[in-house]
Predict the structure.
Amino acid sequence: MDLSFVVIQALSGLASASALFVIASGLTIVFGVTRIVNFAHGSFYMLGAYMAVTIVPWLLQFDRSPTLFFVGVIASAMVVGILGVIMELVLLRRIYKVPELFQLLATFGVVLIVQDVVLKIWGPVDITGPRAPGMRHGIEILGQRFPAYEMFLIFVGPAVLGLLLLIMHKTRFGVLIRAATQDREMVGALGVNQAMLFTGTLFLGAFLAGLGGALQIPRLPANTGMDLSIITEAFVVTVIGGMGSVPGAFIAALIIKMLEAFGILIFPKITLVLVFLLMAVVLVVKPWGLLGKPEVASGRAVLPEGILNLKAFTRTEALVWIGLAAALLLVPVFGDTYKVKVGIEIMVFALAAFSLNLLIGNGGIVSFGHAAYFGVGAYAAGLLVTGPLKAPMELALVVAPVAGGLAAALFGYFIVRLSGIYLAMLTLAFAQITYAICFQWVEVTGGDNGVVGVWPSRWAASREVYFYVVAALSLTTILALRHLFYTPFGYTLRAARDSATRADAIGIDVKTHRWLAFIVAGAAAGLAGALYSFSKGSIDPTMISISMSIDFLMMILTGGIQTVMGPLVGTAVFHSVKDFFMPLTDFWRFFLGVSIIAIVLIFPKGIVGAIDSLRERMGRGPAPQPKPAGEAA
Amino acid sequence: MAPLLSVSGLEKRFGGVTAGKNVTFSLDAGEMLAIIGPNGAGKSTTFNMVGGQLKPDAGSIVLAGVDITGKPPREVWRLGVGRTFQIAQTFVSMSVVENVQMALISHHHQTRAVTSAATHLHREAALAFLARVGMAEMADRPVNELAYGDVKRVELAIALASEPKLLLMDEPTAGMAPKERTALMQLTSDIARAHGIGVLFTEHDMDSVFGHADRILVLVRGEIIAAGTPDDVRSNQRVKQVYLGEAGAQAALKARRQAVGAH
């Protein structure tokens, strides 16, 4: 490896780091002030690129000058900034006070809406942008040619960093941003116009995302997958750098991109694993990232979002559930093939969703990446059956939950060290890494196409028989998991969720218990994934995608995370509706996004939660308003 | 007889701020020891070092012959230290009795049990602890529906459930009405004396301190400036100057009159 090659590699690493920083800085600033992790930040980035491929070529018609190119880039970023303001006014303003699970979901709803809007306006085909005038040549460096535009990008990052620091330290707006990042309540108490501050912050954040996107157009065609691909990277940068810290984001972007630039020379296939290792090490040593500060605990004991009081089934409830189970088991007798297929899928997803609610509803562990364990189970089973081993289905169904549990053990080890929003982002990042591995490791996993020929053993080959295989495994596992909620272990998880301080002060090792719960939930999801892959006959990366994780979250939310059985109802309703509507419209993502936001805003307790409160109202007059157990002294 | 708790030479700094400087004291079984001092004197710091929430920079903490310095809270608890918090920490999604059951489940190393249901586990024992703090009738109420004074009692029951040797109470009466305060402090001192439990508490309410403590430590800027019986501390000139001020001195006087009146 000669020197010139090392230099070129370093320079392209710097250029990528610079571009990534511009985007991540916006995310971290918005989080610092509003405490909302904005999924839609990736959408702003994508919109920036699409705006630029529309505006810039139009401007260049008048004069192919570098000035007009950058006017176009800035104008695109401005438009995106204004979209950010609209999002703040219409949506974010209503969700500053809701639990972070709902905030994340609501902003993901925006991601889905933007995806379909972009598809409608710009179409599914990638759009290549113009090259930057005056920067189309290469620069000679140690005998190698290096693109001038890349050279220019290297300076953009530090320039943006400098400007941001200037704004942060020299303007009133910037000082307020820093103050709010440190103590939001205090800034409010001092009489600062919070509404203006938040709107302004969203403008700045969306502007930076849009700028990042617009600057990409000479390097990367605008495409519909940009939003989710960048958001994971931006999450990783903000988590490593410390959420809310702009210099932290700069350092993190630099480390990650240099690691990738040189990692690719040493381990070409596993740069992702390197990034994963880096994140894991940083978070174990500094749980709040390189330059981040611990989240300030509110101190007050607020009623957590999740299962509140566990009641045993009443006789009627038990009868209703037995009746439902019986009706389900009769589906293959009376139903057609389509109903049997939907029945299988509902049972499989119900198992995954139920295991997720053990973490979220009972443990307060908000996992945004449950699809990882579902997917690991699916891939483990699928690859065992189709790979060189040609193992039978029975073995695969045993190995899959073990694989899911092992993945959960590995990721969970790091995840349970964090809490709140950091924890949620780490679950998502791990899931995305798993997704990327399955997507990129083409020789083994078949990449984008996946692997076909994942069929059940001969005796279970008919849909009807396989239905009963799924029913037996998923229903018994669900019953076993339900039992877990009521055991001392389940209570311990809930105790740790209610007050980790109190749990610690009565001898409970909170992290270890959470870790065990994570493994159990991962194993159950792994089994569900395997059952799903045999029902589809194939495996592919969509089983691990963010959308899959979000679907699981939507299932438990539709049913209500305050109840034990809610996720089952939620899965049945959500999956049937989705299965019915998806073929009818090209805009199902748009509708899904709108329904997510609707659920968060008007229906946060889900169906079973709503039924419960209705019953309470009918039975015992108005339900008592829950009040916080303690007040700050 | 060796003291139940002996703390010696504790040091703690936060950046440039000294929150603890050569803090040395001891506490006997059945004794009520109060730590008082102005805001920022290092009361909570001392407290959290004994409870394991903070690691001291130097010094040692020995409980009944066992060195507990720097051990995490859950281990400190297993060695016999129960605690209550300035802002009550309970399991808000559970009923009153379940809160105490939870402590008992942990005490019996059953937090990973998955065979039986938790609702009936140690229920009788939990009810007995609730009876001790006068909360037995509320056993099946959700803890988040209780008045704050009652929440504090539940917290006391949780802390007692492991049969601790030492009870740490950080501002036990904060946020309570005056009447509730006296009741809670009386209850605590009765239990402490009946069961030979040492109680270390911090408090802003001077009535509670001078009315119920056997001994008082006065902490100012991380240092103990006075220690002794309430009478000693009351008459200590330095304490009067730097800490009690006029209002404090009057409260002390009032407490003494009441104490004399009671005899």
Observations:
- The longest helix of chain A spans residues 3-34.
- The first strand of chain A starts at residue 138 and ends at 141.
